[in-house]
C-alpha cells in the first residue's frame, strides 16, 4: 500500500518537517514518490521513480522550504502498473483553467471506467483512470468552476461510484481547497495557536512550531498514519469526504 | 526576450552540460525558468520563479544527471503576464493519453484566440493561450494520436495562424518527437560519431563527448543562440518548422 500526505493552510507554509518524517516511510514503499505544491494557481510537481528516502529530488524538498497553501505527497508501493515515471502520483490535469492534482492510496479491482471525454490516462494505473473519470464527470457536472461547497456536493455523488470497486483513499486539490476521502486509513491534525512542540514518529526530530508561526496561522496536515507522537490526530471514518479550506475541514470543528 | 533550449536523442542522455551554459544566461532573463524531461511517457517538469542562475531547483538539475530522450528548457524575461509560477514555461497538457510540453520565446500582440474546447489557460500569458489553441486544434484535427509526419503536417497548417500575431519561436513535444519553430532566432546542432570536444560559450567549461558516448549515439541540441563556440550550429530560417526524432531533424540531412 502507498502512503499519502497532504497539507492545507491559511498562509503559505513549508512542508519540510512533515515531509522529512513521511519520506522515512519509503523503506517499505520504495517504488517512487511525488509531491505537488500550489503557489497561487501555479503548481510545482516533483516526481521520481526512486524512493523518497534516497531520491535527490526528495533531498531538494527536504532542504528547499517551498511555501505553499496546498500540498499533496505520495510514496508508492506498486500494486498496479509498472514502476515508471508516468505511474508516479500525484497526477495532474487542467480543468476550467485550473490545475487539478490527485493522489490515491489503495487498489481498485478491475476498474475500467468509460473514458469518453478529454481526460485519458498516460500510464496504466487504476489510480490515474479514477482521476480521469472524476475529471470527466466534474466537467460534465459544471460549465465552469463552481464554489468549493458545490464541488464537494458533486464529489459526494461521484466518489462512491469509484469507491465500490476497492480501496479508495485519495487527496485532490485545485488550489482553493484540498479534498480527502477515507476508505480505510486517513488521519488529520489542525495546528493553530497556541503552537507547541511536535515530535516526529519516524525519526528523532522535533520542532517547536511556536518559534516558526504567527498567532493567526492555521495548518491542517492529513496523512495515512499520524506523523507525530504528541499531537491530537483525528481518525477519519471509512466513507468520509472532507474539504479542507484555510487550514481546517469545512463544517467540522477543528481540534486545538 | 526569453531563451529556449531543447534536446532530442536516440538514446537517453543527460542535459547537464548544455543546461549549465544555458542557465548562465539567466542574468538578463531573471523572471523564472523551467525544464521538462521525458522518461518514456512520463514527464518531470521543474519550474521556479527564481532565475536559473540562483535557483536551488536549477542547481539540482545541474548535478542530478536525468537521462531523457526529449527535454525542453526555458528561461523567462517577462513580456506579458506577472512573474508567477503559473506563467513559467514549459506548459503541460494531456491530449490522447500523452503529456504535451510547450515553451515559447517571443511576443504575440493582442492574441486572444477563441478557446472553446477542453484547454484553458491557468496563467495570463500569450504563450499559454497559444499552446491551448494549438492543443484545441490538434484535438479537432485527429481523433487519436497520429504518426509524427502527420502531426507535422497539421502543425504546418496551424502554426502560421498564430505566428502572424507576433514573434513565435517555440518548442513542443509529446515524447515521440520534438518540434521547433523559428520566427527569429533558433539554432541546432547534431552531435554524432566521431564525437569531439565541445567548449561552452557562456562559461569556461569544456567536455569531450568521446569519453561519454557510444558510437551509435546521436543527440540534437536546439537553442535560441549557439551554446558552444567550436561546433557547427545550423541557423534555422524564419518560418521554418522542424520535427526532431532520434537525434536529428526529419527530412533534413544532419550535420556531422
Automatic annotation (TrEMBL), chains A, B:
Signal peptide: none annotated. Keywords: Glutamine amidotransferase, Transferase. InterPro entries: EgtC-like (IPR026869), GATase_2_dom (IPR017932), Ntn_hydrolases_N (IPR029055). The keyword Transferase applies. PROSITE patterns: GATASE_TYPE_2. GO terms for molecular function: transferase activity. Residues 2-256 form the Glutamine amidotransferase type-2 domain. Pfam families: GATase_4. Transmembrane segments: none annotated. The keyword Transcription regulation does not apply. The lineage of its organism: Bacteria, Pseudomonadati, Pseudomonadota, Betaproteobacteria, Burkholderiales. This is Class II glutamine amidotransferase.
Amino acid at each position: 500500500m502507498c502512503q499519502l500526505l497532504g497539507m492545507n493552510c491559511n498562509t503559505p507554509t513549508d512542508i519540510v518537517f512533515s515531509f522529512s518524517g513521511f519520506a522515512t516511510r519509503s523503506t517499505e514503499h520504495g517504488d517512487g514518490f511525488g509531491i505537488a505544491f500550489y503557489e497561487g494557481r501555479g503548481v510545482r510537481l516533483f516526481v521520481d521513480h526512486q524512493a523518497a528516502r534516497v531520491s535527490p529530488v526528495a533531498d531538494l524538498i527536504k532542504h528547499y522550504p517551498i511555501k505553499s497553501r496546498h500540498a499533496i505527497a505520495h510514496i508508492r508501493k506498486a500494486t498496479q502498473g509498472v514502476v515508471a515515471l508516468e505511474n508516479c502520483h500525484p497526477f495532474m490535469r487542467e480543468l476550467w483553467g485550473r490545475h487539478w492534482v490527485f493522489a490515491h492510496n489503495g487498489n481498485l479491482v478491475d476498474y475500467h471506467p468509460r473514458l469518453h471525454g478529454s481526460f485519458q490516462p498516460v500510464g496504466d494505473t487504476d489510480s490515474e483512470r479514477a482521476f480521469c473519470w472524476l475529471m470527466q464527470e466534474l466537467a460534465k457536472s459544471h460549465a465552469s468552476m463552481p464554489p468549493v461547497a458545490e464541488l464537494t456536493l458533486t464529489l459526494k455523488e461521484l466518489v462512491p461510484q469509484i469507491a465500490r470497486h476497492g480501496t479508495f483513499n485519495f487527496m485532490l486539490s485545485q488550489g482553493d481547497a484540498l479534498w480527502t476521502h477515507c476508505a480505510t486509513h486517513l488521519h488529520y491534525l489542525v495546528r493553530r495557536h497556541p503552537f507547541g512542540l511536535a515530535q516526529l514518529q519516524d525519526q528523532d526530530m522535533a520542532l517547536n512550531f511556536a518559534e516558526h508561526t504567527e498567532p493567526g496561522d492555521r495548518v491542517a496536515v492529513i496523512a495515512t498514519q499520524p506523523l507525530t507522537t504528541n499531537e491530537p490526530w483525528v481518525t477519519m471514518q471509512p466513507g468520509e469526504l472532507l474539504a479542507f479550506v484555510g487550514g481546517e475541514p469545512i463544517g467540522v470543528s477543528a481540534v486545538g
